[in-house]
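Let us practice reading a record.
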Amino acid sequence: MPENEKQKRFTLYYFIPVGYFFLSGCTALIYELCWIRKSSLLFGTTVFAASTVFAVFFGGLAIGSYLAGRFSRRITRPLMVYAVLEIVLGIIALCNPFLFSMSEKLYGLFYPALYHNFILLSGIRGIIITLLLLPPTIIMGTTLPLFCSHYTNSELNISLSIGLLYGINTGGAVIGALLCGFYLLPTIGITASILLSGCVNIGLGIGIVLLLYKTFPSAQVKDNPQRDSAPERIDTAGQKKMKYITAFLFFGSGFAALGYEVLWMRFLSLIIHNTVYTYTVMLAVLLTGIVIGSIIIAFFGDRIKRKALVFGSLQMLYAFFVLGVLLQRPERWQRVIDTQNLYLILLIASIIMLLPAVFSGISFPLVIRMMIDTPERTGTEVGIMSAVNTFGGIAGSLLTGFLFLTLLGLHKSILLLTGINLAIGFVAVIFLEKHLHYIGKIVLPVVCALVWVLIPRMTGTHLPRDFLGYNKNLVDFKEGLNANIAVIRQPTQLHLEINRLWQGTDKKNHQTMASHVPALLHHKPGRVLNIGIGVGQTASRFLYYDIEKLDCIDIERELFGIVRTYFPSAWMDDARVSIIIEDGRNYVTFTDKKYDLISIEIGQTFRPYLASFYTVDFYRQVKNHLNKNGIVCQFVSLACLGFDEFRSVIKTFIEIFPQSILWFNNNEFLLIGSRDTPVTLAQYRLKQIKSNSVIHKDLSVSYWGGQRFRLNRPEVFMAGFLCGPEALHRLAQQGIVYTDDRPVLEYRTAINQANPPYIDSLIPFLESPQAIAEFTLPDSMITAITGIRKNNLGNVIAAALYHHYKTIKKDIRILKEAYRYNPMHVSVNFFLGLEYSRMNVPNKALHHFNRVLYLQPDHAQTHGQLAYLYMKMGIINESEKHYTSLIEINPHDIHAYNNLGVLYLKQLRYKEAMEQFKKALALKPNYAGARKNMEYCKSKLADKNN
């Protein structure tokens, strides 16, 4: 054969299959991301369901790796076996839609009877997931041992072969993760991504087969002509002992590595807002680090003499780095806290995870090299050790997620896993490193143990407490299975936060309207389902109506305990209430119960999987569980949606519920749709806001206008109506329909945290309130409703501007712009009065302060400001009147008594002044200002008497 032909065949034979191996790694990560997402839609997003999917997925990889390693010496043509398996994998992927459909039907048969029985349901779920994912993942697990068996043919290039192959396959995984997570899922969808990968796998398999037969047409030629056919060496008892120790350490290494992934995700939620991109970025960074590490070891591994020392040292460095980074004070992260900027998330993930991933990338080929002394054992050892490491990772992930975080919390879990890393390093150095002096074997572990103890003491950080309470008054917190829950004290109320995102307060707010509005629109709700309880503001208000049953569902078990402890919770003890701890989407999909009213309070669509509550597939399931004339109320958060997303949410909703209305609710909207008939408001239901004393009292609140615009006034309540079916269809005309298969919404909102400038765009679509009323509205009432509704919409922008003024830039121009959008906003008027008072423009200050009192006569701060301003202007009677009003509103205001006393002093009314100073000191005996003023007053009274 000519020399150039040999060179050509060598190139085809060695390099093209390696390219295929790269693509194989790429498709493997596409499968992983797609199957995890598809399984979450089918089995739920609870930690238990997600962990079952994870365990089966990686368990399949481990089994495949073990089997390939176990039989590698019997496989004379590993590339041909690989090709056949790739074709089989591709065929399974092409059958994926059918297999998931069958699994959904099977799961649905058991769910209604078992959703209350966690153990049995978990068992059924585990069996179905195993049947669904185990066969393809076993095939995926065989690839690395088969390639290593084929390409390793010399003792001089074992590390080079394993390191490069591991790096190439993992490099393909990086591309697969980025391609799928950033492009394929939002562009072509989950199913199409799986089918595309299946076609690629079949193409790879066919390509390998054609390549082998084209290059070596004789069936008698083995894939690797240089394969050593010598009999396998028998290990001595000492060698076996060393290998068992090494395998045990490698199991522990995998245990810690996958355990860290759980901790890193939980830690990242303390810094950034978790989005659909977070896991993809984290995965890409981890895999990139592994690629870098495997390449490093590929070129230097065969030259390393003290492999056990290097491995042990890497484990120790791993522990110190993780401990040092994760226990940094929150102040170090202050510039990036709460960011959703993709580049900053990439930077943060790289700082936290890249170097540990490099250590992992070095460790895997290094340990394999420690186990191999002849090339013919490469496939066997790679397969078996990959399985050992993967099973360790599965155990680490499950125990960390379910046991360590639950019993120990994040902080102690970090100490435990880093301690495991140190222990692995100690054992490797002490028992496996033969060339290190015994003094070094004593000193090194002792020094490392001291450093491990000192790092937490030096940083002084406690996780997650210090991050949850950063720049806040933290009252309490719980580390739930799914999230961190915190109770934050504000000056006048308690707030609930989940992963540092606001969920509600202990004071009545607009969340109550998410129950009052649909409950009044439905003529007689009997059975109600509330998905997502927050602090219970919505759920509790359903009980104000004559309902039969209220099912409340939330995914986080710890939430209910926090609500019971810190928030109004008597409603939870009502006999009509059932608490269900479950994934709400999963429950609605598979339950056999039907309801008259379903309320969906799931917002913040940028968080992973929450956008699945806004898809046409979900609404179709909701409709199936509504009784005749039943209605559904969907929470729509304006803060998360740009105009395109807002229109698409509406279009998706009306696709299933064409008879829908849009209702204003402060900084959110409510989409309310009916199963059968148009949504209308009956006159007798509207009258309940006055005739029912409980409802009337609860609606004695306002969005923005104080007492004059309370929601228990019919015109104010009805001003929430924005538009009905015809207008919604016109508004949503340019939108798209969101589906489960193509998760566009969470991708868009993960980047586009929108302010709501599009509110003005809604005005052409507003309809007369008569469109929703079953009775004739007087013209005067329609006029009043129209005016209030205009301020309602303007208040969305006014409130955003006011928030900007309070938190970012105190500029009066921002307040003026807010006032233009809603001149009846109490707080905007108050702060405008303050600004004009500071600028010494009393007439304008008086205008805005008086408007506040017109809207809310009991606004204590405004009475105080007016009293001071009138006193400064020399209008004593007005000043006295407002101080008196302030004391009537708040009889414990010591400054009001003192200031009124000072006012009396200026009028030489010493006895009256003395009485006010005494009242202030009775409330606060060490009040220095009042004490000084009283002494002065006494001296004046003494002079007067003398």
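A brief commentary: The chain has four domains: 1-219, 236-459, 505-793, 811-945.
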